[in-house]
Amino acid sequence: MRKKISVLEMALKAKEASKALMIASTETKNQALLFMAEHLRLNKDNLLKANKMDLDSLKPDATDAFKDRLALNDKTIEGMASSLEMMATLNDPVDNVLSTKTLPNGLVLEKVSVPIGVIAVIYESRPNVTSDAGALCMKSGNAVILRGGSESFNSCQEIMVSIRYGLEKAGLPIDAIQMVESKDRAELQELISLEKNIDLIIPRGGRGLLSFIKENSHIPLLLHLDGICHTYIHKDADLKKSLDIVLNAKLRRTGVCNATETILVDYDVMESHLKPIINMLIENGCEVRGDRLTCELDDRVIKATMEDWATEYLDAIVSIKVVKDIEKAINHIDMYSSNHTEAIITENSKAAEKFLKEIGSAVVMHNASTQFCDGGQFGMGAEIGISTGKLHARGPVGLEQLTTFKYKVRGNGQIRPK
Amino acid sequence: MRKKISVLEMALKAKEASKALMIASTETKNQALLFMAEHLRLNKDNLLKANKMDLDSLKPDATDAFKDRLALNDKTIEGMASSLEMMATLNDPVDNVLSTKTLPNGLVLEKVSVPIGVIAVIYESRPNVTSDAGALCMKSGNAVILRGGSESFNSCQEIMVSIRYGLEKAGLPIDAIQMVESKDRAELQELISLEKNIDLIIPRGGRGLLSFIKENSHIPLLLHLDGICHTYIHKDADLKKSLDIVLNAKLRRTGVCNATETILVDYDVMESHLKPIINMLIENGCEVRGDRLTCELDDRVIKATMEDWATEYLDAIVSIKVVKDIEKAINHIDMYSSNHTEAIITENSKAAEKFLKEIGSAVVMHNASTQFCDGGQFGMGAEIGISTGKLHARGPVGLEQLTTFKYKVRGNGQIRPK
C-alpha cells in the first residue's frame, strides 16, 4: 500500500515529473503506453475484482446508464488497452516547429510546440477515462493529476497500478500520472485551488460539478458546460439529406453532447420538409416539442416552453421552431447556442457560407450531422473532451490542444537599438 | 454630452457591435483607423486642453515618470495618429484558413481564424493606450470596452471622440469601441464580473491592479504579473557579446518588463567575464546586488537577499548569482522566473539548445538581448501587451493573438455511422 500524500504534495511532484516529460523522447513515451496496455491485460482479473467492489457498493438508486458507464468487462478492458496502443501510433504533438521567421537584424524566431505543464483532469465515474486521459496528457508531455468519480474509486486505483508499471518500465517518473487517492470533496476543493501549481483543469461531468469548479477556481479551464446543438433546415434544403441528417444528428446517440437538441426550419418548407421530419422523429421514438406552428402541423407535437430552447435534453426529445428566414435562425442560435456545434442543411451555397461565417460556435457544419463533432471523427486520433470556451482550444481537445508554444530566438550578439 | 450608461448595458451593446465587426470587411476596418487618425490630428487642441485638465488635477505626490506617461504633446499625438495609420497597413488577422483537411468520408474540415468577441482592456493612466488598444481590438474584429486610469479620464474621453468619429464615418457601430465613463472602482468591479458578456480581459498596470483582477474575476485573462527576466552567461560565452548584451538587456531601458533583472554567471568565468560585467554595470550607474561570490569580486557589490531573486526592480538595479553549471542555472530560473523571457550567452550550441529546450518561459533566447521581446521587434506590427500565461497566447500579444478559430465543416449529406 502506497502512503497517502496531500494534494499539494502531488502537485509539487507533478511539477518535477513534468520537467522530465518535457524532454522525454517520443519513443520513451510510446513505450510507456505499450507497457501500460500490456499490464492492463495481464492485470485484468484484479481490475474486474476491483470493479465488482465498486459496483457492489453502488447506492440502490443508481441508474442503469450510470452502472453501464462504471462497469468493466473483458471487452471494455481490451478497449482501454488497445486505445493506449493506438495513442502510441499518433504523432508526438511536442517539439514541432509551428513557424519560423528571420528578422531584419538576423534574429531567427522559431515558434515551437511545448507541453503545457501540469494538468488536472476531473471526471465522472467512468474508469476508462483514467487510462485515456492519463495517456493523452502524458503523450503530450504533461504531468497529470486525475480525480475520478468516487463510485469508481477501486477500479481507478487498480488501473493506476498498470499506469505506474508502464511509466516505471519505460524509465519515466511515476509521478507523471497521479490520482487523488480519496473520495473526499475537500481534496477536490484543494486541487482546484492550486493555481500556482496547476496550469490547466479539464473537468468532465455534470453541470453541477462543472459550475462548482468554474465558480471556485482561478485556474484556466477547458470545458463545455452544455451542448445545445442546432440543425437548421434552410428553405433550399434537400429533403432526403434533411431527413437523414436530422435522424442521425438527433437519434444516432442521444446522451452525447454533439446530439442536436433544437431543429430550426424555414417557414417556406414547413409542409414539404418539417411535416415528414416530425413524422420520422416520432416514428423513431423521439418526443417532439414545438412552437405554435409546429404544433399545428401534427397533433402529436407537445407545446414547447421558453425553457425548451435553452435545454440540453441528452435524451430522445427534440425542440422544433419555425423561423422566417436565415437571419432569424442565426438570431435564435446566437441567443440559445452553447457555442458547441451547429449545422445548416441547404443546397444554396451562399446561404451556407453566410451561416458558416456568422455563427460564432466552435464548429459550424454544412450538410452534415452535428454528431460528427468528435476528436476521433476529426482525425485527431483521440480526444479528452470538447471545449466550448473561446480561448486556446475550441471543439475537440486532442493531443495538439494539450500543448502550448514558446518562441526560441537565436542570435549572434544582437542588441536592441535605443 | 452623451448619456451615461451602465457597464452591463455597455457590454450588451458591445456584443451587438461584435456581430457587425465579425463580418466587417478589411477595408472598412482600415478606413475607420484612417478616419480616427485624421480626426485625432484635427482635434489636437481639444485633446491638449483635456490633457492639461488631467495634469492640473494630479495629486502633488505624482512622480515625474507618472506625469511623463500621462502628458501629451504634439509629438505624442502625432505618434498616436501614425500608429493608427500603421495598423491600417497590417494584414487582417481574421478569416485566414489556418489548416484544411479532407476526411475519408469526404467532409472537408477547415480551421479558420475568427475574432474572440468582446474584450475588456484595463490600463493605467497612459492616454495613448486608448487609441492603440481600441484599434488593435477593432482591427482584429473584436468589440472592446476600455477602462483607463482615472487620472487620464479627460484625455481618454477626448480620444474617444476621434475613435467614434472614425467608426461612424466608416459605417461601423460606435459601440465597437467603448470606454467606461467613470473613475469609480465600483464600475471596474462590475466590468470584471460580467463573465457571460465579456470573453477576455487584458489588464495592464501595477501588480496591485493585476492581482485584484485575477482574484476577483472568472473571465479568462491575458496578462503578465511580473517580468523577472534572466540573462545567463555560460562558461563558453564570448566576452564581448556578454558585455554588449548585458548592458543592453539591463540598461537600454530599465522600466520595461523585458529588462533583465537577474544575471547568472558560470563559476568558471567569474574572473574573466563577471568581473568586467560588474565593472561595466557600476560605471553605467547600475546598482549591483550579488551573492557571496559576486561580492568577493568587487567591494562595490551589495549583498543580495533571498528577496532579490524574486524582485522585478524596473530600475537601474540588478541581482547577480554565480552558478556551478547550466543545470544550476536552469534550476534557478525554474524557481524564480516569471515565464517571460530568458537568454543564454554562449558559443556552445549544445548548451544553447539545452537551455532553449528546458527553460519553460514564453520566450527563450540565445546570444540576444532580452529587450527584444516585443511585438514590434517580433514583426507583429503592434502589441497590446505581453502574456506570461501558458494558454492561448504567450509572449507579445498582437493582432493574431487577439483572434481565436472555428472549424467550418462542409459536407454533402454525410451522417455518422453507429
Question: What does this molecule look like?
Answer:
- Two copies of one chain form a homodimer.
- Chain A is an alpha/beta fold and 418 residues long.
- The first copy, chain A, folds into two domains: 7-223 and 396-408, Aldehyde Dehydrogenase, Chain A, domain 1, CATH 3.40.605; 229-372, Aldehyde Dehydrogenase, Chain A, domain 2.
- The first copy, chain A, has 14 helices and 16 strands.
- The first copy, chain A, has a seven-stranded parallel beta sheet, sandwiched between helices.
- In chain A, helix 5 packs parallel to helix 6 (127-139).
- The longest helix of chain A has 17 residues, at 26-42.
- Chains A and B meet through helix 10, helix 14, strand 13 and strand 16 of A and helix 10, helix 14, strand 13 and strand 16 of B.
Largest sheet of chain A: 7 strands, parallel
Helix proportion range of chain A: 40-55%
**Average pLDDT of chain A, to the nearest integer?**
95
Structural class of chain A: alpha/beta
- The separation of the N and C termini of chain A measures 62 Å
Number of strands of chain A: 16
Largest interface, chains and sizes: A-B, 66 and 66 residues
Domain count of chain A: the total is 2
CATH architecture of the largest domain in chain A: 3-Layer(aba) Sandwich
- What's the order of the H and E elements of chain A? HHHHHEEEHEHEHEHEHEHEHEEHEHEEEE
Estimate what percentage of residues of chain A fall within beta strands.
Answer: 15-25%
Taking all Cα atoms into account, the compactness measure Rg of chain A is 24 Å
Major beta sheet, strand line-up of chain A:
10-9-11-8-7-12-13
What would CATH call the homologous superfamily of the largest domain in chain A?
A: Aldehyde Dehydrogenase, Chain A, domain 1
Overall outline of chain A: globular
